[in-house]
């Protein structure tokens, strides 16, 4: 693993901290940290520290994780840091099963409005319930109209 990310180079200490935090994120997500393999790291957002504000960093990592049933699972991780007085303070980390989930985290990080995810089963149940209630209400209104 090289300490070079896109056009910016990071020192060895930063890369060691990112690597250690990625292993901890895998462990918190209930994957075996000793047998899991982190493929690569990439810093996708780097806002340097200024005199007026702390800096921010957002790192992505891809890994082949081993779950509790000894299966290899491709996972996609994210690590967010706040740079305070030249030290990386861990803000949040996460491990996701799909790239779309990780991209949703980035939109929250960038404070963009979330796009609705229409394939969620709860949305289907909500739609079915709304259709049934609408049909029921229209039937009641129609029967009232015919009875009068």
SSE arrangement:
Blueprint: E1 4-5, E2 8-9, H1 12-28, E3 37-47, E4 55-66, E5 72-84, E6 87-96, H2 99-109, H3 121-147
Antiparallel strand pairs: 1-2, 3-4, 4-5, 5-6
Question: Key features?
Answer:
148 residues; transmembrane; 2 domains; transmembrane helix; disordered N terminus; 4-stranded antiparallel beta sheet; elongated; membrane
Architecture overview:
The chain is an alpha+beta fold and 148 residues long. It folds into 2 domains: 4-115; 121-148. The protein has 3 helices and 6 strands. The protein has helices spanning 12-28, 99-109, 121-147, and strands at residues 4-5, 8-9, 37-47, 55-66, 72-84, 87-96. Strands 3-4-5-6 form a 4-stranded antiparallel β-sheet, with helices on both faces. A two-stranded antiparallel ribbon has the order 1-2. Keywords: Membrane, Transmembrane, Transmembrane helix. The chain crosses the membrane at residues 125-143.
Major sheet: arrangement of strands? 3-4-5-6
Broad shape: elongated
pLDDT < 50 runs, ≥5 residues: 1-5
Q: Assess the beta-strand content as a share of residues.
A: 25-35%
Span between termini: 80 Å
Give a short account of the largest sheet: 4 strands, antiparallel
The computed structural class is: alpha+beta
Mean pLDDT: 86
Q: How many helices does DSSP assign?
A: 3
Q: How many extended strands?
A: 6
Rg to the nearest angstrom? 23 Å
User: Level of helix content?
Assistant: 25-40%
- Overall number of structural domains: 2
| Helix and strand element order | EEHEEEEHH
What is the gist of this entry?
With 148 residues, the chain is of the alpha+beta class. It contains 3 helices and 6 strands, in the order E-E-H-E-E-E-E-H-H.
């Amino acid at each position: 693993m090289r300490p070079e990310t896109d056009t910016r180079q990071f020192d060895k200490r930063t890369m060691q901290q990112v690597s250690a935090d990625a292993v901890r994120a895998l462990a918190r997500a209930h994957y075996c940290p000793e047998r899991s393999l982190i493929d690569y790291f990439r810093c996708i957002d780097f806002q340097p520290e200024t005199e007026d504000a702390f800096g921010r960093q957002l790192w992505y990592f891809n890994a082949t994780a081993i779950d509790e049933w000894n299966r290899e699972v491709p996972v996609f991780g994210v690590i967010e840091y706040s740079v305070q007085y030249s030290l990386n303070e861990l803000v949040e980390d996460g491990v996701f099963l799909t790239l779309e989930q990780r991209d949703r985290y980035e939109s929250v990080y960038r404070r963009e409005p979330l796009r609705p995810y229409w394939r969620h089963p709860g949305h289907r149940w909500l739609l079915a319930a709304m259709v049934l209630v609408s049909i029921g209400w229209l039937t009641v209104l129609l029967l009232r109209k015919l009875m009068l």
